[in-house]
Amino acid sequence: MTLSPELLLTVAAERLRAARPDLSACATPVTPHSLLAAKQQIEDDAAVGRTGGVSTVVVVRDVRLASWVRETCAFVLSLPPEQADAWRRSFTRTLYLAGRPDNLSERFTFAHIAADGSAAWAGPLPDEATTGLRRLLKTFSGRGPLTAWRPVTVDLLRTDRHRNRRPVHRDLYLATAHLTVSDALVHLGHLLSEAVIDGTIGPGDRLTLRAVPRLTELSKPYAALRVDTDRRHPYELQAYAGLTQEN
User: Fold this and answer.
1) What does each C-alpha distance from 78 to 2, 3, 160, 190 come to in angstroms?
2) What local confidence, expressed as pLDDT, does residue 89 receive?
3) Which pTM value belongs to this model?
4) Which value, to the nearest 10 degrees, does the dihedral of the CA atoms of residues 27, 29, 34, 36 take?
5) Phi then psi for 74, rounded to 5 degrees?
6) pLDDT reported for residue 46
7) Which of 38, 177, 199, 227 could disulfide-link 25, Cβ–Cβ 3.0 to 4.6 Å?
8) Rounded Cα distance, 88 and 107, in Å
9) Using alpha carbons only, how large is the chain's radius of gyration in Å?
């Protein structure tokens, strides 16, 4: 299916209304201009602690995308429903810091640490709860360009608590053109987190991670899309990542 500008606007508007129906942009037909304004308002609210927002802090040692996809889903699956809902209302706001989780676990409490030690997640919490961690570490730069890879399938952890759930297999696309490693973490992080909270992704699922230069169409209907403003054309939208219906 073709990911037309009209479809991208519809997806972005649905995300905005689902998370923050109180915003003025939701009271009128949503446009790329009003989306940009709403995004800025959300960032401004978070900066001054308004709206009771929360954020997640991720300490990144190194990036291995397949592992990072698996561990991001594991972190979100571990969240209590009320905490996950509050984070969704904050548009799954996430801050990425550079550090070694194994050197920090005795000083800071993490909700989830990757099995390979490549990353650790703290939160979602009000910003003041992670002040010490954020002051200690620098922002993860990840400025290197994102290079393409062969498709790789990621198996999400299946626990006894979810043994009656039927796992599904989906394709997970990421548009790599003009993206840095840091950009990839942001776009995949939002898509995966919200898909887990919505119940689209669950324990035991299989996700085949695929790289494409630009995401303009999908071979199957989409289950979730990550839509954001195009950096080169601020008043246009772009699909950065997409999750298909089950295979």
Assistant:
1) 34, 32, 14, 16
2) 86
3) 0.91
4) 110
5) -60, -40
6) 63
7) 38
8) 27
9) 17
